Amino acid sequence: MLAPNPILPLILAFALLSACTAIQSDVSGRLRADLLSGNSATVVLSQWCAAAHLAEPPTIMALRDLVDIPATDETRALLKVNVDEPIRYRRVKLICGTHTLSEADNWYVPARLTPQMNMVLDTSNTPFGSAVKDLNFHRTTLDAQVVKAPNTILRVRALLLTLAEQPFSLVVENYTPELESPAL
Prior knowledge:
The chain is an alpha+beta fold. The protein has helices at residues 8-37, 41-52, 73-79, 115-123, 128-131; strands spanning 60-65, 88-96, 99-108, 138-149, 152-161, 167-175. The protein has a single domain, classed as Chorismate lyase (3-Layer(aba) Sandwich). It contains 5 helices and 6 strands. The protein has a 6-stranded antiparallel sheet. The longest helix is centred in the N-terminal third of the chain and has 30 residues, at 8-37. It starts with 7 loop residues before the first helix and ends in a 9-residue tail after the last strand.
């Protein structure tokens, strides 16, 4: 009988780790592709939530964090507003059931939204994309990076624009490992 090879468990562990890393990379790549090809992160997250059966019904909710981060000069330039024009800030965790799918920072120009949209954003847990969907907006991705951090697998920075190409929102979205569900 042959003696057990002491290196074999290490080889198997390395192979398993490599396979897990490849699966995570594939999920991050698919998520990135879906977000870059879609106009609404909320719609993409709803589809992912449904595919993974994370909640019934697969509804995305925005849990607001009542902090305020002032707009930088770069943010004002991207939104094409002068120094006196108000910009609001909204930080949320987008959840599906008990799963946090992303954490997002959003700077937006309230004057470019309807009073109803502003009221919904100020008083509810409605995701930004759902609140402003009547603008028939589209996204322009500024950058998207796969991130190796405990709570983030993908970071996307994007501008939301009206049909007339007027920017009204800058969003920074940090997608969580919860999106690497085996069902996806």
